[in-house]
Write a structure and sequence with these properties.
heterodimer; A: about 375 residues; alpha+beta; Gyrase A, domain 2; Elongation Factor Tu (Ef-tu), domain 3; 9 helices; about 35% strand; globular; B: about 130 residues; OB fold (Dihydrolipoamide Acetyltransferase, E2P); about 20% helix
Chain lengths: ~375, ~130
Amino acid sequence: MTTATLVRKTALNETMRKAGGKMVDFHGWELPIQFEGILKEHAAVRNSAGIFDVSHMGQIFVTGPDSFKLLQKTNANDLRKATVGKGVYSHLLNEKGGLVDDIIAFCLALNRYLVIVNATTSTKDFNWLSGKASGANVKVENRSDDYSMVAVQGPSVPKMMEVFAPEAVKLPRFGIVEKKLFGADCFISRTGYTGEDGFEITAPHAVITEIWNKMMELGKPYGIVPCGLGARDTLRLESGYLLYGQDVDDEHTTYEANYGWVVCLEKGDFTARDILLKQKAGGLKRRLTGIVLSAAGVPRPGCKVFKDGKELGELASATYSPTLKKGIGVGYMSNPNLKPGEALEVEIHGKRVPAQVSKVPFHKGTAFK
Amino acid sequence: MPKQEEVKYTKTHEWISVQGEEATVGLSEHAQHEMGDIVFVELPKPARNVEKEKPCAVVESVKSAFDIYAPVSGQISALNDEVTKDPALINQSPMDKAWLFKIKLSDAAQIKDLMDWNAYQEFVKQNAH
């Protein structure tokens, strides 16, 4: 008897393989971990342009007269910031203040929202929002199976886009525009997970290969390279972006994740507001804290962190930072008030390696300017 | 520079080139390719005694850590500091500039247990996924 393993393939699977992608099973999705090499791909995005297949990401449409009310109620951030044509990064909270997911909610038109969610949580998010929507005049649709997505990232990308979609180049950070591409209704947003300027294009499967090929062609003068999950992870961690399921989950609150800027307590009532209020007033028991190694070595998730010989916690995400050329990581530390520069130690292969508390982001790319 | 056809190989992808009582050890071309960009190397302590098939060094790529196993028993007689300073040398020149360490053999007969180039290529082919 054989065990059937269902690994989903994106519409770009064949394109990824032909481009030399080293395919891996990423939470049930077959995606490239790298093409020519993580360092090369990382550098391409920081310096010029890179392109990623992010079709595993989910799309939930929230429409109808109560759509704003539903999203405002279930999110930590203030959805009023998502005016028509704009999106807002936010945390979908459970009753304990933990994260159901971290999302971007775009307002496409009055009473019409597109919520971009993580791959592993799209069904959970859909069920959560649907549950909260009962009795309200709002429609929640999980369209994750209908859309593919590519992320085109790097400081040269706006120049590439000038010919292809001039209206997208005018977008502010987190702006979104609907556009027909190769005959299909698509969305282009000025967003990404790399810390660099760039765009994410959400499109029906039928046209995603044409979009990918066009981007590769337009990016050629800028040395665009296809990038895999490896570079996606080093780029996002240098930028201090959270990885759901690793840095945050149902058990950790937005404040504990050190993402307090996402919480808008003044906007009125929302799920777990009282818990977050209490946490803000009473202080935290743990906080997601950045560390940077002061000596050579590569920290990994699960490495224990010590201060003056006392264990403070372990790293949730950690890697070699290609930009800083040092080991970096984030982890929940039991001392929530650590200051950048304070001396720590990280246990790697049974040895204590000197490290310091770091500010996060570790590196600010063009998306922060 | 040893030719990859002339050295011996382990199942853990180290190559070893014997010169009299001393042997030079490195990582195979196949291994460096599979590991991807190498960013950190920790070599054994100088003069340390190492034991055949026991881990004695660590090589780390961006994504993962890999143990390096001693192909034979003996005492570390030289270390390549260049590779500690610039781990990417392993990707660029695994057979030459990026030799890792030398071992003074304690039992030269152990070399016979290792694979030659043809056997190693066959081994890699069989273990390919």
